[in-house]
Input
Amino acid sequence: MATTKTGETFTVSLFEYYLSTIKFTKSDGTIYTAPDTYFLVNQAKPSSLSFTVAGVPVGDYSSVSFIVGVDAQKTGFTDPLDFTGDLNPANNMYWTWNSGHVFLKLEGTRTTGNVPKALTYHIGGYTAPNSALVTAEPSFNGKKLLVRANQTPEITLRADATKLFDGPNPVNLATFTGTEMPGPQAIQLAQNYGAGMLTVSQIKGN
Output
């Protein structure tokens, strides 16, 4: 069970999201963008909780950033039949009616009060004015990611589902129990999780 800042409690039955367009920034400001990086993370599937970003050049990196979702060029301009792996529509993270991926899904139950309420938040939308694409840049807290030819460093991220509701756009679960289409509500939730859902808890190999 999780608790929001306003004291509302909820349980989570489904929590999954895409990470894409991963960028590493060196201490000198040089940016490396990992090509064709699309990862579907499902908090209930251990096999999806770790992945490798190959080809990162040797160097000292001071930050990482990524889109929480699937970039517009990929999701909006690719034939769905061409998607494979994590992007495959068979993963149930694609809106055929909207021709684009669902960036994040959170489903569960609000448990505050006497009557439980179902919660369903499916966030997507990649075109203006309803683009819910957000970039997250979790802090390294002054540490460095040291990439060397003879070692493979690791970044451990922590995901906090309450940040969908406790960010810059506070959400009352009693009155806003879900959204399943692009629009202002989806954008507000995306701004929330982009601001703090993912944080760096550990950097190994530095």
